[in-house]
Amino acid sequence: MRRARLAVLAGIMVVGAIGAIALAPGGGAVTVVNTVTVNKVVTGNVPVGTVFTVRVSCSPVQAGALSITTVNFDAAGNPIGSNVVNAGLTDTCTALETVDGGATTVDYACDTSGTQNDASKVDCSADDTVSFDNVRLDQGTITVTNTFPPAPTTTTAAPTTTTTTTVPVQVKPAFTG
């Protein structure tokens, strides 16, 4: 009888724990509090079929864990799938283009915006890095610009006209006699 009561009590505790996890915000998952948007700009003659890959690494200052998200873009710079990366309260997120399609240069630019009254809590600590300092609902944007050589220009020369004039040849008869 005592074992039966313990078994029932243990069952109630398990069901209660499962219910508490299900009712927790996000069902026990990490709550998204900030975002980093990755944009792509391309200039020059991009090879047809090029796919660019940008890796965004986010690590919280306190936990030391690392989250890596891959964002892909087509040859025109349009995202293939989502280009928004979720970040936590204290994450520092860095973008690195791992596949640049043969670009001659790759440049990064960072910008921040958000709803916090204290704008100093979200910061572009480098052109490729956004840092969140215990904030919610703030945003960072990292723009990756690839420069390719310009398309070769072809010039068509104007047709040339050649005029030939036939000049009659005058020969004096040679008389011998």
Mind explaining what this structure looks like?
With 177 residues, this protein is mainly beta. The chain has a domain at 32-147: Immunoglobulin-like. It has one helix and ten strands. The chain has one helix at 2-23, and strands at residues 34-43, 52-60, 67-73, 79-80, 84-87, 91-99, 105-114, 122-126, 129-132, 138-147. It has a six-stranded antiparallel β-sheet, with no helix packed on it. Strands 5-1-10-7 form a four-stranded mixed β-sheet, with no helix packed on it. Strand 2 (52-60) and strand 3 form a beta hairpin. Mean pLDDT is 79; it is low at 4-30.
Spans with pLDDT under 50 lasting ≥5 residues?
4-30
Q: Specify Rg, calculated over alpha carbons.
A: 35 Å
* Strand order of the biggest β-sheet: 4-3-2-6-9-8
Number of alpha- plus pi-helical segments? 1
Short description:
By secondary structure, this protein is mainly β. It contains one helix and ten strands.
Q: What's the layout of helices and strands?
A:
Layout: H1 2-23, E1 34-43, E2 52-60, E3 67-73, E4 79-80, E5 84-87, E6 91-99, E7 105-114, E8 122-126, E9 129-132, E10 138-147
Label this structure with key terms.
177 residues, Immunoglobulin-like, six-stranded antiparallel beta sheet, four-stranded mixed beta sheet, 12% helix
